[in-house]
Amino acid sequence: MQFLIVTECTVPMAKRKEFVGAVQRWEEQAGAVDGAPEAHAVYLSSDDPAQVLIVTQFSSKQDAERFADSGLLESFQAELLQCAATPPNRTTYDLFYAAGPGERRVVFGQDA
Known about the structure:
The chain is of the alpha+beta class. The protein is built from three helices and six strands. Helix 1 (16-30) packs antiparallel against helix 3. It is globular. The model has no long low-confidence stretch (mean pLDDT 88).
């Protein structure tokens, strides 16, 4: 079942280039590791582009744990600290319910 790591921080425009470089380096490294993320996305707030939301999606919590053993999550967090005006806040989520066009997957009571 999908597992997300959501990281929020504030990245000033003066640090944006450094931040993008850190994200791209991390993505290259992450792709070569066992349990690599299925998807990784960076969102900027429309109201305040310095507000950043980073969503890293894994196919399961077990894949995320295998990936965490690589140390790349912690090194990414450390690189974010160098760019961010506020300390990155990281939260994890297990998929509880999902629905899409023509399909409904009810996952109540599974892992969450």
